Amino acid sequence: MGFKISAEYAGDDRVELTHGLSGDKMFTDLPPDNGGRGRTFSPTDLAAASVASCVLTIMAKIAERNGIDFKGSSFEIEKHMQENPRRIARLTGVITLPPELDPVQREKLLAAVRACPVSRSLHPDIALEFEYR
Predict the structure, then answer these.
(1) Which of 22, 36, 61, 75 could form a disulfide linkage to 52, CB 3.0–4.6 angstroms apart?
(2) Which letter does DSSP use for residue 119 in this model?
């Protein structure tokens, strides 16, 4: 099944995105390191944000199925760009999980990093370097 997202150039280096199912809208902007003003997420920022959101969403579902209180968990992700060709070179970050997890629960949740379809869709040259707390 396909899913539609509409994109329309809004001028001033911004693109308006519309979610096909809900009609929710958001904008992207050029980042400062590429001649833009960085007023909101850039397209490559959305790629990094998608990884973080995907991992946390899968972890939350695993936690729910296993009776784990997942509230307060977080993923701080950082995108590192390269030139020639301009693309994402690596994503680094810190995933913070509830401190009271036992080793089995922790391993179940960390499996989400490998299961995330966004991460699995990235080019294999993009390094994923995450710390877990």
Answers:
(1) 75
(2) H
pLDDT of residue 2 exceeding 90? no
pLDDT value at 76 more than 90 = yes
Q: How far apart are the first and last CA of the chain?
A: 37
Could you list the beta-strand ranges (E) of the chain: 5-11, 14-19, 25-29, 74-82, 87-96, 127-132
Summary count for the chain: helices (H), strands (E): 3, 6
Q: What is the pLDDT of residue 1?
A: 75
Residue-range domain boundaries for the chain: 5-34, 43-132
What are the E-state strand segments in 55-86? Answer: 74-82
Domain at 43-132: CATH code: 3.30.300.20
